[in-house]
Fold this protein.
Amino acid sequence: MKRINSLFDALVAKRIVATVSALLVIVIGSTAGIWQLGRAQTKIALAANLLARQQMPILSANAGPWTLEEAAERRMIARGHYIPEAAIWLDNRPRPIPAGGAGNTAQAGFYLMMPFRLEGRDEVLWINRGWVPRNNEQRESLPPIETPVGIVNIEGLVFASPGKVYALGSEDVVVDPNKPRIAQNFDLEREAALHHWKQDPFILRLEESGISDGLLREWAPLTTGVDRHYAYAFQWFALAFAGFLFWLISGLRQYWRQSSVNKDLG
């Protein structure tokens, strides 16, 4: 019992500051590691849900109307024609890199959002046609792309929005809805009010590949970054373990030194 008390004194009682510091490192490292594991599991669950919804029967936008809850993350086909004069170029979008693909995710560019008038319906469906790099020397110039003329059939996945980026300030209050424009983010309700037309409550992200229109559509899977979360979790847990080891080893060394002194005095 005396040895246990001496060990407790050497590890804890005489090292309050070191003990509290070690506890903080352990708690912070463990909490951050658990959070990173949770982020990874969330992405895996989202990807599994997306895959399951993609395997459901393909919807037809022309057979709508569909609600967002009915159509979200499902495959959809549409027939109609593009309205290129009302296109919106969403700025500061990183290049999508597919699983196992090569490329520079730091390369910024545009998502091209373009309205699509559905055949046989007085309704518009907004299409994310893909990604294209930006001209860094002439930042206001729009990249050259090709837009099909006339009635076409398209296919893609339904999403609530193309995603948001941080924007300084607000978007321009006064815009010409009949001219292509550059914007930071996309708001379905705002576009409906600007154009005074009826539109679907979601967007369609094209999944077509091999089309030479100047746009990239090799979308990154939702599980992108899972390995990075696992790596971050390992680093945080390693930090917590290292903090514990440092506290334990330094305390034991102090205990052994004190024991040796006591033996010499005895």
Summary: The longest helix spans residues 226-265.
